[in-house]
Please model this.
Amino acid sequence: MPKVYQRAAARSDLVEQFVYLAENAGLAVANRFMAQAEETFAELAHEPLIGAPLQLTHPRLEKLRKWRIKGFDNHLVFYEPHPDGVSIVRVLHAARDWWGLLGFEG
Model:
């Protein structure tokens, strides 16, 4: 069974989004977001190449791909495929400066 590894920054992103959604859209929406995030991560683990590659030249980011959370299309998952699954790097809202948050200066 493919595995999902979550980096500390991704876990922090999920908590931040959960709190934001709970405060601004309600607890039901926040809970649905978390459930959909977990479902999306599992989908990526089973099909790790479905996300769009970012085509970055920085060696630390060269395998990075992005995908959206099902039902929350403005929330992007940045991940790296691995032989046994995926590593979730960040989960960011599309309106944020995700290039800067990923440490990429364009």
Residues 3-101 form a domain with the YaeB-like fold fold (CATH 3.30.2310.20).
